[in-house]
Model the fold of this input.
Amino acid sequence: MKNDTYERELRHWSEQEPVWRDLEGKTVMISGASGMVGRCLTDLIMTHNRLAGRGKETGVIALSRNEETARERFWEYEDSPLFRYVRCDINQGIPEQGGADYIIHGASNTHPLQYSNDPIGTIMTNVEGTRNLLEYGVSHKSRRFCFLSSVEIYGENRGDVRRFDESYLGYLDCNTLRAGYPEGKRLGEALCNAYREAWGMEHVTVRLSRIYGPTMREKDSKAIAQFIKRAAMGKDIVLKSHGKQEYSYTYVTDAAAGILYCLALGKAGEAYNVADHKSEAQLRGLAERLAETAGTKVVHEEAQEEERKGYSAAATAMLDGQKLEGLGWKARVHLEEGLASAVEGYREMMKRSRSIKEG
Done:
């Protein structure tokens, strides 16, 4: 994938010494490695390996369910002794791969159509999958476990704060289909704490804002992903709500770097928000920006019932990222540059897909 912003940021974050000091010479297992964030984490570690020199490399064990997708995502690493792909469904257990010094659990259904089409899988990947990975970490004496959680665990903002900090407890209606995702994330966080108490499994929790960037998947049904795809294809941007929802967004390399900062430097047992405070926007504003980029317009369309089932009810969901910034992390790519990079990345993905189909 050729993308100037993405490649520049991979290089920048791969050279931040405090992050890599404890990771060099170690092995990191990443679940959900073929996803948007997992792919970026892998790219970031492999970029560090290319630049760091002998003896300072970090091994990657990449886990995902779909081998075909993984081969497309990671073809450039297939011959590297520092990269190992393992096909597995983490809900069914983790195949023996030897020791993993660090485990990053990023496997999860993460977009609306998955919440409605696979509600049980949405819950269980964050519960049974988390348990299986924690068991693997305990049995192999892993140094630290990193659970990728979400802004969604905070529920709805009741108007008492502008941004959620890590201590906020918002309202969440658990008696809905859509609740399977945030409640699953909440239970995943609780499991990490339980394993710390019972087995001494050191962990950190990373609560991600809405992530976007050139590594997004083609089937991603989140609103920002749909906007980016349509802008890349030169089509009108379709808005399926009033568009007044206000959220925090974070470019994918900043998110991946934030995860590694928490993994390497975060305090054991604590949670950290990852959010770019300069990239807060209403949904309609995002749609208008991308329509302007594409030379098209924003049109309104009623959401189908299947889509509505997966939509978040939160009208305002912005994260306070000051705690993570205290570790030395700071977002570098804000919305204007990040959206342009994401559109470019999707165009490159379409070209590569056509090339593969044409043989």
